[in-house]
Amino acid sequence: MIGIYLSGTGNTKYCVTKLVKLIDASADVVPLEDEFIIDKIKRNETVILGYPTQFSNAPYMVRDFIQMHASLWKGRKMICVATMGAFSGDGSGCAARLLKKYGAVILGGVHIKMPDSICDSKMLKKSAEENEKIIRKADEKLKEAAERIRQGDYPAEGLTIFAHIAGLFGQRLWFYKKTAGYTDQLKINQDCVGCGKCAKICPMKNITMENGRPHPGSKCTMCYRCICNCPQKAITLLGSKVILQYKFEDSSNLTKM
Ligand SMILES: Cc1cc2nc3c(=O)[nH]c(=O)nc-3n(C[C@H](O)[C@H](O)[C@H](O)COP(=O)(O)O)c2cc1C
Ligand code: SF4
Ligand code: SF4
User: Fold this and answer.
1) The domain containing residue 86 runs over which residues?
2) Which InterPro entries match (predicted)?
């Protein structure tokens, strides 16, 4: 077994790592941008794929990764894990349907509610205490999911036709344009000091440094990693001002919101 994930602000990394390690402590867990990921996947029969839900969809980078490596999935046993701030309907189903199209065997789907990663919209803010409660609940759910998976009683969250309808009508249809491809809407304001951190950490290599200034391109997968890590809070995407950054590295190192 191997765990693979896209994670902008750490939630999905945490959830996939915890789930995989509870099932098999010796299994590898790697991000989608790992340079040897294809070889690592090839060596494993079962793959747990995790990603953050975006407008009740899988991030474009994840869908692109599945399509670009279509031949990898034939016969491979997959469990899809979607993390989310509130609701996704069929978050796990979005990748599962695509993987199935390429011949994967879908074993299960897991939905984990985590703190919201969008940090430039006031509407979505929660207190640090609320976020800690959400993470404690997620820990419980991950334990239950791991136990079920170990026993071969796979959770099927997000995989039913009802979940599909909920995801479609709950959000995906209305926000389809936002997740139809990569975006070129990243904005960097005058507070930028040219430290280069954003360029270094972007999983899409979407930001390049030219003459000491960052230049965003048109391949942003809206993961919010650069936005939540910029020391100057100079980057925005959906909103126009960073309220309070969010990043989650492990449960004892939660950045307070
Ligand atoms: C662009 C964008 C869209 C999002 N859309 C949804 C959504 O439709 N439903 C939801 O519950 N959470 C949504 N979220 C919240 C994330 O799915 C959630 O915070 C996730 O756990 C972040 O994972 P990460 O830290 O691994 O990136 C969205 C986040 C972003 C950045
Ligand atoms: S991380 Fe922020 S301050 Fe540093 S180069 Fe990027 S935008 Fe500028
Ligand atoms: S530009 Fe920022 S938000 Fe977009 S993919 Fe890169 S790190 Fe994520």
Assistant:
1) 2-177
2) 4Fe4S_Fe-S-bd, 4Fe4S_Fe_S_CS, EFR1-like, Flavoprotein-like_sf
* C-beta of 8 in contact with ligand 1 (< 6 A): yes
User: How far apart are the C-alpha atoms of 43 and 117, rounded to whole Å?
Assistant: 32
Residues 158 and 232 occupy one common structural domain: no
- Do the domain assignments include residue 136? yes
Q: Is 117 in the pocket of ligand 1 (CB under 6 A)?
A: yes
Atom 4 of ligand 1 has which residue's CA nearest to it?
A: 54
Residue 254 DSSP class: B
Ligand 1 test: best mutation among 17, 80, 81, 84, most atoms within 8 Å of CB?
Answer: 84
Helix (H) / strand (E) containing 105: strand 105-113
Using CA atoms, how far apart are residues 92 and 226, in angstroms rounded to an integer? 25
> Which ligand approaches the C-alpha of residue 119 most closely?
1
CATH number at residue 191: 3.30.70.20
